[in-house]
Design goal:
Helices cover 43% and strands 20% of the residues. The chain contains 11 helices and 16 strands.
């Protein structure tokens, strides 16, 4: 089992400068490799350059520019080239699937924030001073950097990454662990229905309120963004304001993560089996396609984009995708079972008689079966139907 850990690191002023230079030089390598691929395809009879060819050039690149490229880890530079290769692989996959291609783009130095080290001990060393009570991580060209390790790392460290987020620096580890001991069985099963009015409703009739962290911080974010728009470009005032805006976004993101972790942990501790809907979140937050007006050239018909934008913001603010990812990870560690089910008609099907109709849900919160007169909260009905569908899938899988 592979688990990831993220720790805040506290570099000195000189180490922070060296880390920034490392990001800058890896960004330059990434952009140079991208330019080489573009030129080869455009000017050399549509020739495609692969990772192996660019990796073979690293030795000459390091010898030609020892000050900027030769000082960093060879393996980390290979990882940067692999990163570009993955971007092209995804580009060609989207073309074959008929999706929007999204050709790989050049990265600005402020938008290249991560350097990967594929193996602990090759250009980096986790816990480089084991006899020191303070944990440190060593990076080639930077030195031993102090780590704020807030929890122990279990298992053998496999990969190490360094990331910049605003003015802070983090180290991210992946560690290989043995299968953990499952939590004691509770004999409880539950279905959950994610929503906007309530973040979560379960099949037992319980609700988890939606904290709406983004909406609560919207006024401060709007004021900070407006102040940023009044700043002159490439000035110190603008740079400081960018950091303020980033800090507000970081706070909202961490609040959302904290809520997701606590909610998922509570579900995993109380239930052996959890069922939830298979939500296509990317499709749900997609902007409606424009509708050209056939009678007026260059004009468009109303397509409900303004109303849909408000729903999209609410879905993104709820953070369903983050929560479900965390739920699956915690359930795997605890030995719990999580099953996804088809979300169609879960809130329109009566749990008492099975009658399915859109008229069964007259409002957002109310469920009133038109056939058997069953009444309940619509989200609770959805959670009950999700649980039943999940149990059917579990039994079919075991059978």
């Amino acid at each position: 089992m592979i688990r990831a850990y993220k720790f805040l690191i506290r570099p000195t002023v000189g180490q922070a400068q060296a880390l920034a230079e490392m990001l800058r030089d890896h960004c330059s390598l990434y952009n140079g490799a991208l330019q080489e691929r573009r030129d080869a395809y455009r000017h050399v009879s549509k020739t495609s350059i692969k990772y192996g060819q660019q990796s073979a050039q690293l030795k000459d690149i390091r010898a030609f520019d020892p000050e900027r490229q030769g000082r960093w880890s060879f393996s980390s530079q290979q990882a940067t080239l692999r990163r570009l290769d993955k971007a092209f692989t995804a580009f060609f996959r989207r073309i074959k699937a008929g999706e929007k291609p999204g050709y790989p783009r050049f990265r600005g130095v402020n938008r290249f924030d991560t350097v990967d080290f594929p193996r602990d001990g090759d250009g980096c060393r986790w816990d480089s001073t084991p006899h020191d009570p303070v944990t440190r991580v060593r990076f080639q060209g930077v030195g031993h950097v102090r780590v704020n390790r807030h929890r122990p790392v279990a298992g053998k460290v496999k990969t190490v990454s360094v990331r910049r987020e605003g003015r802070r620096w983090y180290v991210i580890l992946t560690a290989e662990q043995a299968e953990p001991e499952p939590l004691p069985a509770t004999g409880s099963v539950v279905g959950i229905d994610l929503g906007i009015a309530n973040f979560l409703a379960d099949s037992d009739g319980g609700f988890v309120p939606n904290p709406r962290h983004g909406r609560k911080a919207a006024a401060r974010l709007e004021a900070a963004q407006q102040a940023l728009g009044r700043c002159e470009r490439r000035g110190d005032r603008r740079r400081k304001q960018v950091q303020r805006v980033a800090g507000l976004h970081r706070k909202v993101r961490r609040q959302r993560l904290d809520h997701a972790h606590k909610t998922a942990l509570d579900l995993v501790r109380r239930h052996d089996f959890i069922a939830h809907e298979d939500l296509r979140i990317r499709t749900m937050v997609r902007t409606p396609a424009p509708r050209p007006d056939p009678d007026r050239l260059g004009a468009f018909l109303p397509n409900g984009a303004a109303a849909k934008a408000g729903l999209n913001r609410s879905i993104s603010d709820a953070g369903w995708g983050v929560f479900l990812t965390i739920l699956h990870a915690k359930a795997e560690s605890a030995g719990r079972e999580v099953i996804v089910v088809d979300p169609r008609n879960t809130s329109r099907r009566c749990p008492a008689c099975g009658h399915t109709a859109k008229e069964n849900r007259p409002t957002q919160e109310q469920f009133h079966c038109q056939q058997c007169d069953h009444r309940a909260h619509a989200d609770t009905v959805g959670a009950v139907n999700v649980l039943r569908a999940g149990l059917v899938r579990r039994d079919a899988r075991k059978g």
